[in-house]
Write the C-alpha cells for this entry.
Amino acid sequence: MHRIDVEPRQGWPAIIEEQGLIYWKTELPDGSTMPYWNESNAYTLGSDEIYEMEASVRLLMEMLVEAGDYIIESNLFSQMGIPGWAVPKIKETWESEPPMLYGRFDFAYGPDGFKMLEYNADTPTALVETAVQWHWVQDVYGGGGDQWNMVHELLVKRWKELAPRLPGDRLYLLHTTAEKSGEDFMTVGYLVETAREAGITCELMAVESLGLHPEVGFVDAAGRSIRSIFKLYPWEWMVHEDFAEETLKRMGDEQGQTLWIEPIWKMMWSNKGILPVLWRLYPDHPNLLPAFFEGEEHNLTSFVRKPLLAREGANSLIVIDGQEVDRGPDQGYGEEGFVVQQYTDLGDYDGNRPVLGVWTVDMEPAGLGIRESNGLVTNNLSRFVPHVIDD
Amino acid sequence: MSQRPRHRSRNVSLVALPVLALAFAACGEDETAYCVDQSDRIVENRYCDENAVRANNGGGGAAILPFFWYYGGRAAGGGSLVPGSRISGGERIAASNIAENARRGGYGSSTKSGASGVGRVAAHSGGG
C-alpha cells in the first residue's frame, strides 16, 4: 500500500456535498474547521492485498460466530458490561437469527499484515464516504479505475433478501437529531436509498420522535404502528433509556411487536470485550492482536487500553514501553470496564496513520474505506482518503 | 486464482441523497401538525383535542366528529397555514386515533451526555 498525491477535482466540495457528504467540514475546538474528506491524496493497493483482506474478513466473520457462542456458554455478559436483564433477548435472537445488515472492521496494516483493531457491528458510519469515493475513482481514473467497493450493490442485494422477512408495510429508519453535522442523517438517508432500490417502502425518522402506545406498541409521528425498524442508534445506549424495557418485551414480528435491525445480539460483537474473547479462542491468529480484559494477567508493555463501550477513541489510552504516549478525549466512558490490546504500528505515510475500514454486508466482505490521522488515536479528527487498486 | 472476483460496483446511482442533503440544509423535519376538518381545511386545535377526548372516553354515545391531525403539509393555495386555509401534500390521521395516547421521547437521551452522534469514526484507537 502506498499514499500518493492526486490533483483534487475542480470544485470538489460542491461535488461531494451534492453526493450527500454534506458533513465534510470538521469543527475544531478553537472554532476553525478542517476538511474530513481529503482527495489531494489517495492510497493505492494491489489486488493481492485486497484478496488477502477479503479472505481474512471472511474467516474473521466465522470466528465471530464462534466468539458469540463462547460468550453465551461462558456467560461473559457482566464482564462485558452488558446488563443482565438484556441477556435473555440476546440469547434468544442469537438463536432465532432475525435480520442483520452490516458492519465494519477496522484494521491496522503493518509489516505483519492485517491486524484487527475492532469490529463495529451495530452502528458503523462512513457509508456515504464509501459511496462518494466510488464517484471519485470514476472521475479521476475514468472507466479503468478500480476500487474495492461492492458495498452499495451488496446492501441492495441484502435488502432484497430481507424484504419478505420484514413485518409491516414499511421500514422505519431511525437517526438521532442530536447529531448536528448531518452525518447520522445522511448515513441513514443512504441506507434509505439502498432499501428503496430494493423495493422497500421507507420512512426516515428521528429516534426522538418514536412513540410508544400501551396497546399498539411503537408508533410513528402519525400514530401508525411500527413493525420494522433499522436504527443508527446503539443498543448499548438504548438499554439504558426509557423505552428499553418495552423494546425488549415487544421484540418480534407478531402484531404489536417490532423487529429491530441490527438485532440486539450485536451487543456482543460491537463490544470491545470481543477482542479478548477472540484472542482467547484463537491465540496467535495472524489477523488478531493479543487482547485481554483489564485485570486478566498479561505481559503487554505496549498496549491500547479501551473502554468496553467507548466511541470515537474516547477515553482510550496508548501506552508504549510502559509510558503513556497519547489518549483520546474524556467522554466519561470506562465505568463499564476496559480491555487492553497490544499496540500495533499503523504505519507512517508522510506523518499520516491509516486505518483500513472493511465493510461487511450480512456475512460478506464488501469493500474498503480508509481514514487517516496524525495522532496515534484515530479519533473524530481523522480524514477519509479514497483508495484505488493500481494493478 | 483462475477467476478473479469482481471488486467494483456495477453502478452507484445516488438518486435520493442530493435531495436529502437539501432537506437537511433546510433543517429537516417539520413536525408541526395542523387540525383540519373533513375537507382538509385548518381549524383551531381545540376541535381535534375535544375529538380525541371524546373518543378516549368511549364517545359517551355521541358521534365522533370528523376532525384530523394533518402532518407534513403545505398550504394548498401557496399561502400561509392559518385557520381557514386548505392544506395538502401531507398525511392526515383521525384525531380520535389512539396516537394521542403515545408516549414519546423514550429514546435519544444518551446523546445529551457526551458524544453527539453515533460516532464518525465509531472506530477508535487506530493505535491498535
Q: What stands out?
A: Chain B touches chain A through 59 residues (CB under 8 Å). The longest strand of chain B covers residues 33-36.
